[in-house]
């Protein structure tokens, strides 16, 4: 019986070899091949470490960090406030905060272009009270807004999931021992919610660092980010080797950040669970 | 769980009739064309007439079409490369030598557009649409005449300028403004153009392709570098807009229909190209797309429309004479790509 | 007082999340073609929507892909999770970690690596490649949703059932499945959401004529989206809201029934 059950893992094992491992290996091979000849080379990687591409990487990391920080600052209180509501309201607010994700993210991003534009809704309202047009669309600010908008639920949900599991008895005990609700929050709720925070950070940081659609639409391609650079190599230049090398570097970078981030996760027992 | 699956299946079944892929056809033709470059009705008509399903996909640059065709990773029969891309694809043996007997409607094509340098005998391509690159601007927002590329470097239009998101076109504009050829292979000239474009970045709203029309129509910007056909359409939507080909000269371009060597249905592909050259079909496409048509028989009809009788749609010989055609830079293209990456990332 | 502030915060946040959707809905009734000027109330874009072949075919492929990917990944994911739960030692570590790869990789890396593989194997790009890609990134989420539920299960239950003469299949169907059904539903829902919202992975793994909504919007957004898409968004959001309301109502009534027992 047990053997039969174990055998059920086989199909997915084969699937992973075909569609996860083999593609990764292929990407590594492409990255180490020269685009001209058939020789093995590290040139593709070396090319990336030029000031130009370092700047591309840095810009991507920079906007990802800022986006993640803003998401945390806005998302944590939101998750907390929802978690302390009575159960029924809690469910409603949670569903309401996730519902927009069921509408295509590109559609929602496109809609922002109508709101932020020079003749968009915001400027129409501003001009009605006599304030001149402000440029929001086609600036870095619009990119932050667009990313915050798209990724905020990824921050709220994991934090919320951890917060509702914290036993209220801890807080009661703290209060019985004379802690103010403020210090009870800092000393108990905050540390216990760290796993959720860390999951939230990685779930926002990852898509933010590699996005190429949001800047393309909301910033007007002013700045090249690493996602745009990869896309450009594969679809416009047709340089799959260099494109693979950049992808490998992006992958290594993300893995490294996740490892560093997990160092802060003190909960220890996270073996199989995503959050 | 079962109910959920049943529900999902219902949704799927309900959606199927709308998908437009219900009718069985005996053959399938794969067409890869520029976005918004045909009257969709034309494909329906072709399907009816030739009992052949048309699978229609779009692209947004010559380069991305080339990569797709080169990879041959998805079936594709008919493509619409521009001049310099035709040259490159012919050189690399990617285009099929047309059997002209199967394309009698080629007689409808304006002879001026035949026998160009990129395909001297028109062995591989049949002209489709053509035009120029110029400045589309809002006369209410711009003072004085627009007759020089220099206006794109004018400080007073800071935050009002939109550039085209395409390496050849944008670097070409800078080269022309400096008085060089758009096909320059001189590193000093190209570096000079690069510096000029980098210095322009603070004035520019962004680098866009097709959406630029919407932006200029909606007055999100005052000046944009764009194709003549897009300009014609935009002017119909916002009468304040006007189009000008600067005196320093510009680019003239010709998009042609061609068949890939890897095509598995060349006969039907030739029928499709022949169909596109038919007068009524050319007229439908021209009226929908508003780019300058290659068909010489429909000028009178087009001149009667409220947009056709314009210099943007029918440029004078004098305008055409100061424009040059892009040539395929060969291996030198990587220099352009690198320059473009540098401009975009600075 | 504090409670009110908290609620105000949540409402402000919801306003932020729904503002763009509201704008799309309002403009879907706009008589004008351009989104920027209001030309009076009209239903013309709803009629135009059903005649727009491109949008309808994009919608069809999106739903077909999402439904198939959800069903297949839920089945594979559930059985794999059961198997992995019975594994221990190195094999378990290998499975759990490999399963994480698509989760922690960025979309663009996952999408491109699969594109390379399909191109290398000379598989023609089209609906099949897109579907395989979707299934691949959905399965890990199903497994991650089901595994914790399996852990919480009392292993003695299955043994007891088998001792009492149940076939393994009966034991699975009668004991395991009801216990992990919440995990399976969560996984399926997650898979469906991810599939329907995906752009990057589909973008790199689709072929001639197969366009999903994301890809359609991406290429359409570059030339100014036609207002039909506003109408489609409105319909989609209404359908989703209605579905959720039905599911919620049923869940609530189920809960109360269970409570009575």
Protein traits:
heterotrimer; A: mainly alpha; 74% helix; globular; disordered C terminus; C: 261 residues; mainly alpha; 11 helices; 0% strand
How are the SSEs ordered, and which strands pair?
The complex is a heterotrimer of chains A (275), B (346) and C (261).
Chain A: H1 2-7, H2 9-31, H3 43-48, H4 51-83, H5 87-98, H6 105-116, H7 121-128, H8 140-163, H9 168-176, H10 181-192, H11 194-210, H12 213-218, H13 226-237, H14 240-263
Chain B: H1 2-15, E1 27-34, H2 40-50, E2 52-59, H3 62-71, E3 78-79, H4 83-91, E4 125-138, E5 161-164, H5 167-177, H6 187-200, E6 204-208, H7 211-217, E7 223-227, H8 228-237, E8 241-244, E9 250-259, H9 266-277, H10 279-289, E10 292-293, H11 299-304, H12 317-321, E11 323-324, H13 333-345
Parallel strand pairs in B: 1-2, 1-3, 5-6, 5-7, 9-11
Antiparallel strand pairs in B: 3-9, 4-7, 4-8, 4-9, 4-10
Chain C: H1 2-28, H2 44-51, H3 53-86, H4 90-104, H5 107-120, H6 127-152, H7 155-163, H8 168-197, H9 200-205, H10 213-221, H11 228-260
Largest sheet report of chain A: none
Mean pLDDT of chain B: 91
Which structural class matches the secondary elements of chain B?
Answer: alpha/beta
User: Which parts of chain B are unreliable, with pLDDT below 50 for 5 consecutive residues or more?
Assistant: 17-21
Can you put this structure into words, describing what you see?
The complex is a heterotrimer of chains A (275), B (346) and C (261). In chain A, helix 6 crosses helix 8, helix 8 runs antiparallel to helix 11 and helix 13 runs antiparallel to helix 14. Chain A has 14 helices and no strands. The two termini of chain A are 31 Å apart. Chain B is of the alpha/beta class and 346 residues long. The N and C termini of chain B lie far apart (53 Å). The relative contact order of chain B is 0.18. About 1% of the residues of chain B have low confidence. Chain C has 261 residues and is an all-alpha fold. In chain C, helix 3 runs antiparallel to helix 8. The two termini of chain C are 40 Å apart. The mean pLDDT of chain C is 88. The chains are: A mainly alpha (275), B alpha/beta (346), C mainly alpha (261). At the A-C interface, helix 1, helix 2, helix 4, helix 5 and helix 6 of A face helix 1, helix 3, helix 4, helix 5 and helix 6 of C.
